[in-house]
Design a protein that fits this description.
This protein has 13 helices and 2 strands. The chain is mainly α. The protein is elongated, with a radius of gyration of 22 Å. About 40% of the residues are buried.
């Protein structure tokens, strides 16, 4: 029988495990994702240590994304940007566990399967999410960028091009615009205000909120679109938040970023900005 490793050997083994490229990146996400980042890293890189298991193909994709992002990171990358990338992958792991518990099955259409060159369609999405997470200054977005990876893995009706389109759309929106989409998406659970929005706000906060709302309408993410001036200069209809609906583009962003998880407090604040 082989003798058990010495104390120093065990410490060296643990340190080597923790310094594994990819695992180290996910664990660095603790600054944004909290202690969950270490749990996610263990689930991806040491699955035998947890009773929870991820689908093999999904776990392999997230490991591959984390390792490539760690080994091939552009130089220089700030420590904060690195931790945001790790946190996005930790959040992806977190929601993947939730989706599995909900009975959502991982897609089997080749999205996660590496092809020629060892690259899967999902790898393009993973790389794009890592870049987006590194580059955002609004760190609350990182959670939803990670959630996009988890949702894409179970959304067999969305090919890589559609997922990439949703990610680009989300990247073009302000934080408040994402929260407004979240507000409209939960209208059945939390009714929207019925008072009309101001037409000529004096405060800068309300003005900016109305600009955000108008851009969502003009960009085709929310219905109804902005009203067209009528001949003769007759009064335009007043818009009420309760009248708003997600369009198909809005549904895509809302679904991929799992905006149902936006905090109720953030939704309340964004709606108050419109008053």
């Amino acid at each position: 029988m082989r003798p058990p490793p010495s104390g120093s050997a065990m410490i060296d083994a643990v340190e080597q495990l923790e310094e594994t490229p990819g695992r180290a990146l996910v664990e660095s996400g603790a600054l944004v994702a909290g202690t969950m980042a270490r749990t996610a890293a263990g689930l991806l890189f040491d699955p035998g240590s947890s009773r929870v298991r991820l689908h093999d193909g999904l776990a392999a994709w997230l490991r591959r994304t984390a390792t490539d992002a760690d080994v091939e990171a552009p130089s220089p990358v700030s420590a904060r940007a690195r931790c945001r990338a790790g946190a996005a992958l930790a959040f992806a792991t977190e929601l993947s566990v939730t989706r599995a518990a909900q009975g959502r099955t991982v897609r089997t259409d080749g999205f996660l399967t590496p092809g020629p060159g060892g690259r899967a369609p999902a790898d393009e999405i993973g790389e794009a999410v890592v870049l987006a997470a590194r580059g955002t200054a609004e760190e609350w977005r990182v959670r939803h960028l990670g959630y996009l990876l988890a949702e894409a893995a179970v959304a067999a009706d969305l090919d890589a091009a559609v997922v990439a389109r949703g990610l680009r759309l989300a990247g073009s929106l302000t934080g408040r615009q994402l929260v407004l989409l979240a507000a409209v998406g939960r209208r059945e659970r939390i009714p929207l205000p019925i008072a009309p929005v101001p037409q000529d706000p004096r405060g800068w906060t309300t003005w900016a909120a109305l600009e955000d709302l108008g851009e969502l309408q003009r960009g085709g993410l929310l219905d109804p679109p902005p009203p067209t001036p009528r001949p003769g200069g007759s009064a335009l209809p007043r818009l009420r938040p309760a009248d708003l609906r997600l369009t198909r583009r809005g549904v895509l962003v809302h679904r991929l970023l799992a905006l149902e998880f936006v905090r109720d407090e953030a939704v309340t604040e964004a709606l108050a900005d419109l008053a």
